[in-house]
Write a structure and sequence with these properties.
seven-stranded parallel sheet; 9 strands; Rossmann fold; 10 helices; alpha/beta; two-stranded parallel ribbon; about 15% strand; about 270 residues; binds NADP nicotinamide-adenine-dinucleotide phosphate
Length: about 270
C-alpha cells in the first residue's frame, strides 16, 4: 500500500466524494482525510454534510460542503465549474438509488431516478473531472459498484443493471486512461453496514463489512484497477455467481438473497 504522502501526491490535493453525507461516503471522507487529502463533501442534505464537516474540522481539515442533487439537469455544469476552481485529483461516485420490489409496481419516475442517480450521475462526474485530470496527467476515479452487478437480480433488477454499467464503465476507463496516469477502479462491494443497508435489511448478510473497512480496502486497491471485491467471502461469492455457476442458478441465488433481505426488513 502507498504511504499517505504518496497517496496525497498522486490523488490530491482535493478529493470529491459524491454521496458523502453518511454510511460509506462518510467513511471515504474520513479515510481520505487520514491520507492527507482535502475534501469536497457532496450530497443532497446539507445537515448531515455539515455534521461530518464539523467532525473533520475538529481534526484539522478544511472541507467544502456542496448540497446538490446529482440527478439534476445542471449537475454537469456545477461540477465543471468546481473542477475549474479546485484542483480535484480524485473523484469518488458513491451515491446510489436502490428501490427494491416488483418492477411493475414501481413508478416510471422511480425507475428513471435509478438511471439518473446510478448511470447518468457517474458519467456526469467522470466527464466533468476528466479534462483537468488529463491535463495534470495524474489522479483517480472510483465508482462504487456492487456484487449485484455481476448477474441479474430479481426485485432489484434496475439497480443491479445500473451497477453492471458502473463496473463495465470503470473497466473501460481504466484501459483508456491508465497510460495517461489516471487510475480508475470499480469497487464491487457485498453487503456494507450503512444506514441505507440497515433501512432495507432487518439482518446482516454473510460477509457484511463495516463501511470504514470497505473505504480503506477500495482506496488501497485504487492503483490496481480495474475492479476490486472487498472482503474474502465476497470475493468467493463473486466468483461463484459471476463465473462458476450457470446464469440461471446465479440469478436464482440472487433472488433468494433479495427475498431474505425483504423478509428480514418486515
Ligand atoms: N450498503 C450496501 O450494502 C452496499 C452493497 C453494495 C454496494 N453498495 C454501494 O455502495 C454505495 C453506498 O452505499 P450506501 O448504502 O452507503 O448508500 P446510501 O446509504 O443510500 O447513501 C448514499 C449517499 O449518496 C447520497 N445521495 C443519494 N442520492 C443522491 C443524489 N441524487 N444526489 C446527491 N447525493 C445523493 C446520500 O445522501 P443524501 O440522501 O443526503 O443525498 C448518501 O450520502 C452505493 O453506490 C451502493 O450502490 C452498497
Amino acid at each position: 500500500m502507498a504511504s499517505s504522502a504518496d497517496f496525497a501526491q498522486r490523488y490530491g490535493p482535493w478529493a470529491l466524494v459524491a454521496g458523502a453525507s453518511e454510511g460509506l461516503g462518510a467513511a471515504f471522507a474520513r479515510e481520505l482525510h487520514a491520507r492527507g487529502l482535502s475534501l469536497i463533501l457532496l450530497a443532497r442534505r446539507s445537515a448531515p454534510l455539515e455534521t461530518l464537516a464539523d467532525e473533520l474540522r475538529a481534526e484539522g481539515a478544511t472541507p467544502r460542503v456542496l448540497a446538490m442533487d446529482l440527478a439534476s439537469p445542471d449537475a454537469h455544469t456545477q461540477l465543471l465549474a468546481l473542477a475549474r476552481e479546485l484542483e480535484i485529483g480524485l473523484g469518488i461516485y458513491n451515491a446510489a438509488y436502490a428501490p427494491v420490489g416488483d418492477i411493475a409496481e414501481r413508478s416510471f419516475e422511480e425507475l428513471m431516478r435509478v438511471v439518473d442517480v446510478n448511470v447518468r450521475g457517474p458519467l456526469t462526474l467522470t466527464h466533468a473531472l476528466l479534462p483537468p485530470l488529463r491535463e495534470r496527467g495524474r489522479g483517480g476515479l472510483l465508482l462504487m459498484s456492487s456484487l449485484a452487478g455481476f448477474q441479474g437480480t430479481p426485485r432489484l433488477a434496475t439497480y443491479a443493471a445500473s451497477k453492471a454499467f458502473n463496473t463495465i464503465l470503470a473497466e473501460g476507463l481504466w484501459g483508456e486512461l491508465r497510460a495517461q496516469g489516471i487510475d480508475v477502479l470499480a469497487s464491487c462491494a457485498g453487503a456494507i453496514r450503512t444506514p441505507g443497508y440497515d433501512a432495507a435489511a432487518g439482518k446482516q448478510a454473510p460477509g457484511t463489512l463495516d463501511a470504514a473497512s470497505v473505504a480503506r480496502r477500495s482506496l488501497d486497491a485504487l492503483a490496481r484497477g480495474p475492479r476490486v471485491v472487498p472482503g474474502a467471502l465476497n470475493k468467493v461469492a463473486s466468483l461463484l455467481v459471476g463465473r462458476w455457476l450457470p446464469r440461471r442458478r446465479a440469478v436464482a441465488i440472487m433472488a433468494a438473497n433479495t427475498r431474505e433481505l425483504e423478509n428480514s426488513a418486515r
